[in-house]
Write a structure and sequence with these properties.
Elements (H helix, E strand, L loop, with lengths): L1 H11 L6 E4 L3 H10 L2 E3 L2 E3 L1 E4 L2 E10 L1 H15 L1 E6 L2 E6 L1 H13 L9 H4 L8 H7 L2 H12 L10 H16 L19 H16 L2 E2 L12 H22 L16 H8 L1
Parallel strand pairs: 1-5
Antiparallel strand pairs: 2-3, 4-5, 6-7, 6-8
Helix pairs in contact: 3-6, 3-10, 7-8, 8-9, 9-10
Length: 273
């Protein structure tokens, strides 16, 4: 009711609320459901009717930064997760990230990434977003690929599924966390002229995340650790919907969308001071 009251007050003041951002804990998910959202895997609907105008939608996004932390927690706890490719399970293993950190510490060299021991012992800093993002970053995937393909290190053979998984998570985070109007590539703002590109990328990643499995081939979206799966899926659906609406609306359409604007960071930084 408090959420509805805030939306109504803002509406009466001449402002339209287009989105509500929450982290993914159970209470917030239940709040979103009571407002009209659906988070069942078979029917994820991250929006509800505006309480003052039934023709308008208010979108709900589970904070992407929080979802990245949950994905890091998931693979670190499970040690092995998988996805299916060409009829076979491809194993994503946390041990390759551990081996990379161990090698860098022993050699005293860093292969162009920010991985450190505190990133491996993440439970002491589980709320730290940059640590989770850097653990599952393209730079870590590049280092593992280098050790496997160029250095021919036997400890990293078979790590292809792991680096593919890391890149998928890193890329979707970039799409859902764009900050700079002049950004390029995956960090570019969402525009109509690059819509085909970001729509395809987000849809492909959504399918990949929904099909993630545990070591025995059981779908993670049906497990007790499904929040990160549902969170990323609903965030992608939200961005696809809100971007299309704002970029294509008849009156004063947006020139571009910076997805970082839908982050919870702004609230947290405000109250941090």
């Amino acid at each position: 009711q408090l959420v509805k009251d805030c939306i109504v007050l803002l509406h009466n003041a001449g402002l339209r609320v287009v989105s509500v951002v929450l982290d993914g804990n159970f209470t917030n998910q239940q709040t979103a459901k009571k407002l009209g959202c659906k988070f069942k895997v078979s029917n994820i609907q991250p929006w509800f009717q505006h309480p003052c105008n039934a023709s308008l939608l208010v979108y709900v996004v589970l904070d992407v930064c929080h979802m990245v932390k949950l994905v890091r927690n998931l693979i670190a706890d499970y040690k092995v997760i998988s996805y299916e490719e060409n009829g076979a399970l491809q194993m994503v293993k946390w041990e390759y990230i551990e081996k990379l950190n161990k090698l860098q510490e022993e050699e005293g060299l860093v292969l162009a990434n920010k991985l450190k021991m505190k990133y491996i012992a993440w439970t002491k800093n589980k709320m730290n977003v940059p640590m989770a993002v850097q653990t599952l970053s393209t730079s870590v995937a590049d280092a593992i690929d280098f050790l496997r393909e160029d250095a021919k290190d036997p400890d990293f053979q078979g790590s292809e599924p792991t680096t593919k998984f890391i890149r998928k998570i890193d890329h979707v985070f970039d799409h859902l966390n764009s900050k700079n109007p002049l950004g390029t590539g995956l960090k570019a703002p969402l525009r109509l002229d690059n819509q085909d590109e970001w729509q395809q990328e987000l849809n492909n990643t959504m399918s990949f995340i929904l099909d993630l499995k545990d070591e025995k081939g059981r779908l993670l979206r049906s497990s007790r650790r499904k929040t990160c799966i549902i969170g990323f899926t609903s965030a992608i659906k939200f961005v696809l919907a809100i971007a299309t609406e704002l970029l294509r609306r008849e009156i004063k359409p947006f020139n571009y969308i910076l997805t970082y604007k839908f982050s919870q960071d702004h609230l947290e930084l405000f109250f941090n001071f």
